[in-house]
Amino acid sequence: MHQFIDGEYRDGNGEEAQRINPATGEVAETIRHANTDDVDAAIASARRAFTEWSRRTPGERSDAIHRLAGELDKRAIELAAVETSQTGKSIRMSSGFDVPGTVDNASFYAGAARQLRGLAAGEYGAGGTSMIRREPIGVIGSISPWNYPLQMAGWKILPAIAAGNTIVLKPSELTPGTTLLFAEAARDAGIPPGVINIVTGPGKGVGEHLVKHPGVAMTSFTGSTAVGRRIMELASQTAKRVHLELGGKAPFLVFDDADLEAAAHGAVAASTINGGQDCTAATRAYIQRPMFEAFTARVAELMDQMIVGDPAKDCTDLGSLITHAHRDKVAGFVESARGYGARILAGGEAPGGKMAAGAFYRPTLVVDAAQDSPIVQEEIFGPVLTALPFDSDDEGIRLANDTPYGLAASAWTNDLGRSLRASKEIQAGCVWINDHIPIVSEMPHGGYKDSGFGKDMSAYSLEEYTNIKHVVFSQDRSSHKGWQNTVFRTTPPSSA
Ligand code: NAD
Predict the structure, then answer these.
(1) What percent of the chain has pLDDT over 70?
(2) pLDDT above 90 for 227
(3) Which CATH architecture has domain 250-433?
(4) Which of 299, 274, 447 is nearest to 361 (CA)?
(5) Is the pLDDT at 75 greater than 80, yes or no?
(6) Alpha-carbon distance 454 to 30, whole Å?
(7) Rounded to the nearest 10 degrees, how much is the dihedral formed by the CA atoms of 365, 369, 370, 371?
(8) pTM for the whole structure
(9) d(Cα 246, Cα 454) in Å, to the nearest integer?
(10) In this structure, which topology does domain 3-245+465-471 adopt according to CATH?
């Protein structure tokens, strides 16, 4: 059963679809998707649950989310195995990053739930005391992608419910498993039926219905920029608040004073993490000219050492990509780059033999592709890094900013002035200096430019899921208050 509505698993009433294990190409399970009636039922359940959940004290919500963190931790082995089998990512990634990251996120929001507060009261107008309240918005409709299904469930659900909202989440149709387990863990933690509902199915039918529904107060979306634009358009029909975490094309800027070995290791790890299917992955390396040859040679050497294979094995560095169609799209970018004169220094192919059945692709380094070519400008979402040289610092920073995206970036240098300049002038929601990828629950994640707006994680995200209300207590007991004279006068003007 692949719907979780009103605290229980249900069969969907929509179409049947087969989920394929991307590492083997075999059918893993058959899923009955939701139809629009199922989405309506999930929203109705979330609306019913809102009254009680939103009235709970922050401490009561915090206790429940603490118990959820414990339930997720108890299921760590199962969550990691399901995450790996549905996405093809390595088990080291699922068990070392996805699961502990989600447990930590739950612990963080259990604490943050008790920290949500408005500003202190004050007299900002004569005779009136103002107070700011932060209140939950209502039912949140969320839509998440396939690359980090469990972490995305956490990033969407936890701040929303910590702030007193209830939620209906639609995970990617390719990867519903760990999102459903998340909801089950919440039920076992004592979070009431209806606070968290999961509906599964395709974007067009199920997702669009959720976005357009008048019973949903806000849409929180993570996915591609193209779909994000469509979500914004649909949400405008009911003037909903939208929160959009979209695509990325992160630059990786290496100045000529950088530690070459550290930068090369950083580039390999940050460009191949999760098979490169990470919105913050390093995708465009710009290397100051004196270091270019040595850097690209070392990155190619390290990429060639990576073990691509069965994602369930602990020795595997890189599992499969999400689908065969996506692998072909990644390969297509590389093939067309060869066509316009790029050279491939590592990878550039899908492994053959027994591995041909899975959606595998080797870590790939591409040089000599022009800055305005598709492989440098567009989101590939695979283990592919391009590298280009630059001369002056000005040129490096200009190239780093030269795509429509602005989610994440890194600069590698031991020079204080260069690091301060890069952190200020690169237009991205996160800039790492001498590292690329690490995130923490306390710090915000979100984009500039076409990478969207709004923040996930951190106290900023909690605030996104609240309305700000201004309350004024008048201390003026007179029947006709002074300011009303500007509208209508009931006392004669003074003769003075
Ligand atoms: P996608 O945009 O194709 O799909 C994302 C979700 O939207 C899925 O659940 C899908 O079913 C749904 N969807 C698709 N069309 C829809 C429609 N018309 N109406 C409503 N819902 C619809 O993205 P994807 O391929 O699943 O994920 C990869 C993308 O996600 C990449 O672009 C990546 O950069 C982005 N991403 C961004 C972040 C971030 O934090 N900024 C994090 C992870 C992934």
Answers:
(1) 99
(2) yes
(3) 3-Layer(aba) Sandwich (3.40)
(4) 274
(5) yes
(6) 35
(7) -20
(8) 0.96
(9) 10
(10) Aldehyde Dehydrogenase; Chain A, domain 1 (3.40.605)
Q: What is the pLDDT of residue 496?
A: 53
pLDDT band for position 121 (cuts 50, 70, 90): confident
Question: Tokens for 149?
Answer: 């299904």
The 10s digit of each residue's pLDDT in 133-146 is 999 999 999 999 99
- Residues of 101-134 as b/e, b for ≥16 C-beta within 10 angstroms? bbbbbbbbbbebbeebebeeeeeeeeeeebeeeb
Query: Does any ligand 1 atom lie closer than 6 A to the CB of residue 184?
Result: no
d(CA 213, CA 478): 46
Alpha carbon of 140 to ligand 1 centroid (Å): 17
Instruction: Give the tens place of pLDDT for each residue, 445-456.
Output: 999 999 999 999
Q: Is 247 in the pocket of ligand 1 (CB under 6 A)?
A: yes
When pLDDT is cut at 50, 70 and 90, the band that residue 384 belongs to is very high
| Catalytic machinery residues | 245, 279
Q: Is the CB of 278 under 6 A from ligand 1?
A: no
Separation between Cα atoms, residue 372 and residue 223, nearest integer Å: 24
Domain boundaries defined on the chain: 3-245+465-471, 250-433
- 114 Cα to the center of ligand 1, angstroms: 31
